Amino acid sequence: MPCDLILALDVPTREQAAPILRQLRGSLRWVKIGLQMFTAYGPDYVKAVADEGFQVFLDLKLHDIPNTVAKAVESLAPLPIGMLTLHTLGGREMMAAARQAQQQTKPELLLLGVTVLTSMDGTALNEIGVPAAPEAQVGRLGELAVSAGLNGLVCSPLEVGLLRQRLPASVKLVTPGIRPAGEAGSDDQKRIMTPADAARAGSSYIVVGRPILKAKDPAAAARAILAELGA
Fold first, then answer.
1. Percent of the chain predicted with pLDDT > 70
2. In angstroms, rounded to a whole number, what is the distance separating the alpha carbons of residues 28 and 63?
């Protein structure tokens, strides 16, 4: 199963992002815009990144009552985005409402359910009243999301093998928590894996931020990761 690379564009300003994106044109297809950049610059920045030739993964992790999330999906549908996230903890009704809104307004959009954040481990789950281990919680939420109609999930690479056993092969799995071989430190990620290992486990897309953003040559760093993926 082929695995593609997504750049997490987690920088403070569009001015800092601009030279990185210029260098990466032609080296990778996907760019993830998260809450930081979307809150700062809004829909116009999504359009600007798409105009640079990138496909946009809008990572907003929507989580609210079903009607509010459905209306948010409808509001975002005119934007040039290929992926959009919501929290599976919103429950079946919320995910089904989002899926219905997506199908009616932007059928080609991949709606992704976020399971357990890669910054969380068993201790963090216990603190919020979830007694399950991360892998068990990811499996439960993944099955719930698919039963609600979602065809994609965000999970740690450590849970990809489990989900591949329990879910249809058509479900897309997007995995942050990726660190290239030899990369020191995990930053705030607690459940991590190398690109090659994530691809072998069955990831559809891997999300990489700092190892590319902080590289002296971001394009060379991206190409090295793609080479590791066999892309």
1. 94
2. 30
